[in-house]
Amino acid sequence: MHTPSGTSLPVVPAALAPVLPSRYDREREPAPGAGIRIESDTLPGLESVAPVDEGSVWLHDALLGPHSADIVRYLSLARSTGGPVLDLGSGAGRLAVPFARHGFAVEAVDRDASALERLEGWARRIGPQVAGLVVTHRSELTELRLEGSYRLALLAGAMVTAVPPARRPELLREVAAHLESGGALALDYTAHQLPGLIAEPRRTWAFQVPRFDGIDEWVVARQVFDLPSMSERITYYTARTGKLSTERVVLTTDKWIVDPERLAAELHSAGLHIEGRRRHRIDDRTESVLLVCRPDD
Hints:
This protein is of the alpha/beta class. The chain has helices at residues 22-25, 57-64, 70-81, 96-101, 113-126, 128-131, 168-177, 194-199, 260-269; strands spanning 85-88, 106-110, 134-138, 150-155, 179-192, 202-208, 216-226, 231-241, 246-256, 272-283, 286-295. Helix 4 links the parallel strand 1 and strand 2 (106-110). The longest helix has 14 residues, at 113-126. One of its GO terms (molecular function) is methyltransferase activity.
């Protein structure tokens, strides 16, 4: 939860201070306060971070790792719908590979070729049975053209917020056209209350990434909302300290703020209806929303 105003804030290791490169020195840093959080159960996502090089792959894994609890929810849904499963914005396979390990055929779609290579390598290391259940497809979501049919399609990890609103209806129509009867589209996103965005358009998040290998890993995330364009930018300043060295990486992701009513209208227009809605409160102005959508009869 957020640390209440007026209370002492966690001490972020000094190793993070040098993460701020000189080009950021001229920018006004967000003042610490109610926007500081230290828990990593619900974190700003990496949905539209540019493809990473090998030197920063660990950061992707670290920041997406805390979202792994959603695997349980999506697996439960898959058991009710069956496969094949379409994983849109799969990254390096945090959902696709566990799904294959549970016997589901999965088509994993991502724009980053290196992420798909890592996904395939992970599946092969587990064994041929798992590798044989995974097919990868490199594509931007805004240019997606599907050929198969699916019982379950996933836009997990708030991936829908990486799609420009003007291009979202086309994506939803493409997915809906390839869902089998009785299938489902599941997606999640962060819902913000407009007064909260107006009151606090700049927020700072600090958290320690859970690790069990003796490495100390911290992230400070700066979140800036732009209401005229209904968009947000998150910049991650990170430090990972081991016995011999410290690695520092800066990554930036641009996302779109979801208007729930507009999204519901787009789903309806695509031939989908919202069958289930699950909300998880993040704070008094923000919640995580999971939608399960079914094709119209």
